[in-house]
Amino acid sequence: NQRYILVLLVFMVLDIITGVIKAILTKELKSSVFREGLLKKVLEVVIVILGFALDWASSLSYIGAGCVIALVLMEAWSIIENIEDYVPIPQVLKDFLDKAKQTNNN
User: Fold this and answer.
1) C-alpha distances in angstroms, 75 versus 14, 27, 54, 88?
2) 0.90 cut: is pTM over it?
3) How far apart are CA 69 and CA 82, in angstroms?
């Protein structure tokens, strides 16, 4: 469980960093947008806490991990969107994330 959470935190930080870089490069850096993004990250942490609390309360062991995996995939996609105009993204990575996103939406 700790590894899942660490991976999610790394992806969240990378998303914030790449988002700020994109905003600087596009000259659209706004504190209100940054603040909104940070608040969304806080809500993602709430989802993870809720998932692991449900695991604990129900003696299950997959809800928290499932929440973290879904959020990691979402963060990965956001990172790709932040950098795809500036660096080439391997098609295999895009395909994987597209497939994961479709599976997550169903």
Assistant:
1) 8, 22, 23, 18
2) no
3) 20
> How far is Cα 31 from Cα 35, in angstroms, rounded to an integer?
6
The model's pLDDT over 20-73, given as tens digits with 9 standing for 90+, comes to: 999 999 999 999 999 999 999 999 999 999 999 999 999 888 999 999 999 999
Task: Count other Cβ atoms within 10 Å, centred on residue 15.
Answer: 23
- Report the amino acid identity of residue 105: N
Whether the pLDDT of residue 98 is over 90: the answer is no
Helices (H), the chain: 2-25, 31-58, 63-83, 91-105
Coil vs helix vs strand at 60: coil
- Scored b (16 or more CB within 10 A) or e, 43-53 reads ebeeebeebbe
The single-letter code of the amino acid at 94 is: K
Most distant CA atoms of the chain, gap in Å: 49
State the Cα–Cα distance between residues 97 and 105, nearest whole angstrom: 12
